[in-house]
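ok new one. same drill as before - structure tokens go in, u give me an amino acid for every spot. 226 of them this time. try not to just spam alanines like last time pls lmao
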């Protein structure tokens, strides 16, 4: 299904449009790249990462407008946050980026987090995978499309730039979720030390993700002060 010029100039893509792009490109991407370490992942569309993590439908946070996608190891699912998909390129890059993570060693990825987003070898590989997005594009106006997507300078949300930080990797900026209480709900004590957070970061599910978020955010703040 071709993307028309009027879709490019719109504020974003509808949920149905995003789903149609995913349905078209993902089988071909799997055929080209092969199954991930846990098999073929599911791809689910969601409107907001905070709403998904908290279970509160209308919850939003500082990164609600910039988080485009994430792969969750525990349930082998790629989540596409369709409200942040501006065009076809966004969707294709997001799928390619997260699908690359499904081929990587998860334990090694956790260790690589210490290197930071820009220097994480797995993130470098995922960003490199995005460069193949044109192969799966249905558009003829690719050059114009790319120019509109990036604007006059790299956008924070753009997956193809070193500035992009998905929610669970954007820790050093000190931003916090829009509502309190998630840490307590998942069992992370108030005022947990770095040592405690490091242990909790190895937990599965939401507890582990929240602990890693807090751990890396605090490490980022510490680096800024030094």
């Amino acid at each position: 299904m071709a993307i028309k010029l009027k879709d490019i100039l719109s504020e974003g893509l509808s949920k149905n449009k995003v789903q149609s792009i995913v349905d078209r490109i993902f089988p071909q991407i799997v055929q080209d790249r092969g199954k991930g370490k846990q098999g073929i992942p599911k791809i689910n569309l969601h409107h907001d990462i905070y709403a998904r993590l908290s279970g509160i439908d209308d919850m939003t946070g500082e990164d609600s407008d910039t988080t485009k996608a994430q792969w969750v190891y525990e349930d082998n699912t790629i989540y596409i946050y369709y409200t942040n998909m501006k065009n076809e390129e966004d969707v294709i890059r997001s799928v390619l980026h997260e699908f690359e993570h499904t081929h990587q060693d998860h334990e090694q990825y956790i260790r690589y987090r210490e290197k930071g987003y820009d220097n994480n070898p797995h993130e470098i590989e995922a960003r490199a995978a995005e460069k193949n997005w044109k192969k799966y594009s249905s558009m003829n106006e690719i050059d114009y499309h790319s120019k509109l997507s990036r604007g006059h300078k790299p956008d924070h949300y753009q997956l193809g730039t070193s500035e992009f930080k998905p929610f669970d990797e954007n820790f050093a900026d000190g931003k916090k979720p829009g509502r309190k209480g998630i840490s307590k709900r998942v069992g992370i004590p108030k005022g947990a030390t770095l040592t405690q957070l490091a242990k909790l970061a190895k937990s599965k599910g939401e507890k582990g993700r929240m602990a890693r978020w807090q751990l890396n955010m605090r490490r980022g703040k510490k680096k800024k002060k030094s």
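The chain has one domain: 5-179. and btw The chain has ten helices and three strands.
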